[in-house]
């Protein structure tokens, strides 16, 4: 299972076209999940001046065996200039839509909620037309911390369920499937105007029926947007790929998701939770709140 099928082959990034993004990130001492998690779409996204900013990192307090983000280093104290620098990058790159995500910071009393808030506030000050998506960890089930984030009203609240319940102990040993569902449910309860979003990796040993059940569970908590993509092993020390899922299966899941009420389903082998995230701006026009 070492040879990737043709549909997973990605053109090498044309680095001369993405230098502006990389230079901005280095100048302002910012991290992106595009780089830290070895995303296969980094060339395409950077070329179109899109980036998913990784705050409070790059060291994570959890050790999920599918993820390429470092968990062996000790997390550092929060950088007070990070929110302002992130906002400067958004302004400099003229981003219409920005995704802000983070490592898990279980060492912090609020799980990092206050840093998300500061980032959103700084962006709104100097780039008020930019729509904002926050891709947050589960906050250890602390809904007070969730409420702190929701008060600044990001347009999209994203939290990935990542996999099916049966595989959680192996894939997300420090996560909890029901807790992830509850986070999305609480978001709608606290602020029904916010679009909620979640994502799944496949190819880890799940069945079609199990994937569909997760999709149904997400609709039960009124999740609006879903992404589905193929898991790719970052290195030999990470979880093995159980199967490469054919694009036709992704298309079947997309059709099923649309039939049960998701406003948008992005489903393909190379889809990641932030891939083409800017398309939500059109979704907001079509389904205004």
* Alpha carbon gyration radius: 18 Å
Question: What is the residue-averaged pLDDT?
Answer: 87
Please provide the ordered H/E string of secondary-structure elements. HEHHEHEHEHEHHEHEHEH
Strand order in the largest sheet: 1-2-3-4-5-6-7-8
The shape, in one word, is: globular
3D architecture notes:
This protein is of the alpha/beta class. The protein has one domain: TIM Barrel. Helices cover 37% and strands 13% of the residues. It is built from eleven helices and eight strands. It has helices at residues 15-27, 33-36, 42-47, 82-93, 113-126, 143-150, 168-171, 177-190, 208-220, 247-259, 280-286, and strands spanning 31-32, 52-55, 97-102, 131-135, 156-158, 195-202, 225-230, 264-267. Strands 1-2-3-4-5-6-7-8 form an eight-stranded mixed sheet, sandwiched between helices. Strand 2 (52-55), helix 4 (82-93) and strand 3 (97-102) form a beta-alpha-beta unit. The radius of gyration is 18 Å and the shape is globular. The termini are far apart. Mean pLDDT is 87; it is low at 12-17 and 34-38.
Any descriptors?
TIM Barrel, 11 helices, alpha/beta, 8-stranded mixed beta sheet, 289 residues
Explain the layout of strands and helices.
Blueprint: H1 15-27, E1 31-32, H2 33-36, H3 42-47, E2 52-55, H4 82-93, E3 97-102, H5 113-126, E4 131-135, H6 143-150, E5 156-158, H7 168-171, H8 177-190, E6 195-202, H9 208-220, E7 225-230, H10 247-259, E8 264-267, H11 280-286
Parallel strand pairs: 2-3, 3-4, 4-5, 5-6, 6-7, 7-8
Antiparallel strand pairs: 1-2
